[in-house]
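Hi, does anyone understand the following?
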Amino acid sequence: MNRLLLLEDGSIFKGRGFGAASDATGEVVFSTGMTGYQESITDQSYNGQMLVFTYPLIGNAGINRDDYESIDPTTKAVIVKEFARVPSNWRSQMSLDEFLKNKKIPGLAGVDTRKLTRIIREHGTMRGMIIDAEDDLGHAFDQLKATVLPVNQVAQVSTTHSYVSPGKGKNVVVIDFGLKHSILNELNQRDCHVTVLPYNTSAETIISLQPDGVMLTNGPGDPTSLPHVLTMIQEIQKKFPVFGICLGHQLIALANGASTFKMKFGHRGFNHPVKEIATGRIDFTSQNHGYAVDAASIDKEKLLVTHIELNDGTVEGVKHRYHPVFSVQYHPDAAPGPHDAAHLFDQFMELMDAWKETKKNA
């Protein structure tokens, strides 16, 4: 089935449809990861976005039960140079084509993804639409220009009900802004008793659970669309250790007086070098974000910048000067990507131990 990708700048890309046969509209972004397409597609941080893979062949290992980052992905579309019709892997349960059909996500293959990526790098992320080749182009472009991207995307992907992943260790509350299952896996591996709460949970509810620590997860969209969350963070950071990842990092910065900005085309992929300022240590990291913390806006009386991205110098980590709070812009849980930064979960465990000891001796 011949299909087209339209961009709001007037560009048109021809391709062949696979996956769901439906049309799609969303923000077109690209990922530089060479592997991990299943984890990427099911990452809720791609909510409302049309995901372009720069690696030329996608789907050769199929889809398996272990690599879901969410069960019901909200990625708008998958765009590739070539997809594997017949996967070959001992864990494979279905092809990428079958998976996208099941999840009602359209795919587009045969696209010159190098050219498409260069357009995005030059002009920034933009709205796109996938339609049938026979559709009226003029009408489609009018619809595309009239499309309004969603504002509070977190509400679409956060859990609506609290749930528990039991463990015998530390009592950790996780605030779900669109979490990846790999974050829970890292906490479970450390035998944490995890309670996952919706994004709009009040500080009072969190305090009533008396956690050893609070995790703020990744998620999609503009962090400034969640002003009520900032009040919650301002309350809990005085009482418990807090660890923020990606969107959680941005929200911690906002709650402490900083501002954020939309990046030209974001960081999406698994090869971003990040430097820890205090030690000079460099980790290669997994990233997926379109917004960043404005370094010039950080109140140095409250926050200390701990990490920077070596390619563009953007802020990749902060910690609070007076409260047991730290955060990173990247994904230490990886999945997919390098596991260089998994030690940050151990750092969170140590912070909770130290905080408990401080309270005991107070």
Remarks:
- The chain has two domains: 2-146, 154-361.
